Amino acid sequence: MTSIELTHVTVDIPIFDAGSRSLKNNVMAAATGGQIKPRDGTRKVSIRAIDDLTLDLQHGTKIGLIGHNGAGKSTILRTIAGIYEPNEGRVDVDGSVAAMFDIGFGMDPDSTGWENIILRGMLIGFSRKEIEARAADIGEWSGLGEFLDMPLRTYSSGMSTRLAFAVSTSITPDILLIDEGIGAGDAAFIDKAKARLEEFIGNAGLLVMASHSDDLLRQWCTEGLWMEHGKVRFHGPIDETLDRYSASRTA
Amino acid sequence: MAEANLEPERSERLRTTLGRLSVAWQDLREGIAMRELWIFLGWRDVRKHYRRSVIGPFWLTLSMGIMVGSLGFLYSQIFGTDISTYLPFLAVGFILWGYISGTITAACNVFSGAAASIRQIRLPFSVYIYQFVWSQLINLSHNFLIYFIVLVLFSIPIGWSVFLFLPAMALYILNGVFFVMILGPLCARFRDIPMIVGSIVQVIFFMTPILWSAEQIPDRVAFVALNPFYHFIEIARDPLLGGTGTLTNWLACVGMTIVLGVIATLFFARFRSRIAYWA
Question: What residues have CB less than 8 Å from A139, skipping those under 6 apart?
Fold first, then answer.
């Protein structure tokens, strides 16, 4: 059964400016006793992005992450995706995960549209055979026609978004992680994208979505998780969570 | 009181280490299972570099060929040696050194260069490692064209011992992977290590018998024998030129591979989970 379980998860993100990343400064700091702001007895500077979060999401949950920039929404998504391994606590994820963070990720400007379908398809987990079998469908759906034979750098940004969107939504994951709204080109395309997105999100057993758009959240999510400074401020039905959140902003 | 606490603390630490080792091992195995992906990406890396150029990666071969040809001519004059023995020696040494130095210097950028993709999708970190070593091997195999030309041009007498090149290559690949397991995370964390590594590699080039041969300094045996890179060059160069490499060469290489392997595994296991934060 698809599920996500976070148990007392804490994630600290180390901050490296040009200074603390260099070896010299570390050696110098050790020699001079360390002048850089210490944290927990070390010289490292870090931000606690998630602070002791416990969360149990079962199959069928569609949860929206709400909060200011830097509240820890993206970090939660990356932790569930297995990109960030937490400093403390456990993350148990059961089911195949698809992460849609940056829609333009894994596209090569010098490759043709077709090549990019293969490339991105393999990066999101298809085997070569699988993606080659789907390439024609994906290409057709993108509506880019003979542009697919041209290098991606000749595309307008709307066109490359179409292509990325077409490939990304061709998988059927158990768990879907979405960061921010999926911007999708021109108006005609948005209608088309909506139908596909509906199917894509509808098929996922579990959805975790971070967004600043109330409409998107109300449309897709049933639950809301309001984060503040890495901690849960409120967890409940999406409407109530959004209402409380907007009330706190106007207050 | 303090002593009573020591035992559980130590066993706790041991458990953590073992846990990390098994996760690292799993990472390395998962990566091998995803070979289709990194073979594809490795090829792309090589091709991307030379996209829209007519002869592609053979530019690498061509520039190395020109270098080997002119240096071979020049140094055989300086050293007063016969060009028909010196040039093949230099050519093979250069080709192999190309792989060694290329792997070590570029190993530093494997994770920092892949930062965008590391933060976008979860892949075993070993995928980036294998992809990198694979692309280095592709470059090496392009340069082998020079070897074949030299082979024919100077009619080098090779025998069955040429197959010793295969175990030598296996050691090259293993050590390549180990180097990335150490330098990849380390250089992602400390951004001036790549520069340090770069200059060290340059110095090693001149200290290793590539331009000159070990026989030229018979009274400085230790200087050569203590250089790990000498042994690594020798186990591959000698078979390609009709010899076998000495037993000492082989034992030294196997020994160093084991030591480096242990260090790399421990290092990678310890810092693997930090790579996403550092890259």
Answer: A113, A114, A117, A148, A166
Identify the residue with better confidence: B6 or A211.
A211
Kindly state whether A199 is in contact with chain B, defined as any CB-CB distance less than 8 angstroms. Answer: no
Residue from A122, A127, A180 to probe the interface with B (highest B Cβ count within 10 Å)? A122
Bridge pairing between strands A62-66 and A206-210: parallel
Residue contacts between A and B (CB atoms, under 8 Å): 61
> Residues B57, B138: contact at Cβ < 8 Å?
yes
Q: Per the CB < 8 Å rule, is B278 touching A81?
A: no
Mutation target vs A (from B121, B190, B275; most A CBs, 10 A cutoff): B121
Q: So what's the ipTM on this one? A: 0.85
* Residue A232 in contact with partner chain B when CB distance is under 8 A: no
Q: How far apart are CA A184 and CA A164, in angstroms?
A: 9
Which sequence spans correspond to the domains of chain B? 21-278
CA atoms within 13 A on the CB side of A87: 14
Chain A neighbours among B 50-69 (CB < 8 Å)?
51-52
Tell me which chain A residue has its CA closest to the CA of residue B37: A122
Binned at pLDDT 50, 70 and 90, residue A43 comes out as low
**pTM (two decimals):** 0.89
Give the torsion sign (CA, A176, A181, A186, A191).
Answer: positive
**Domains of chain A by range and CATH?**
3-96+211-250 (3.40.50.300)
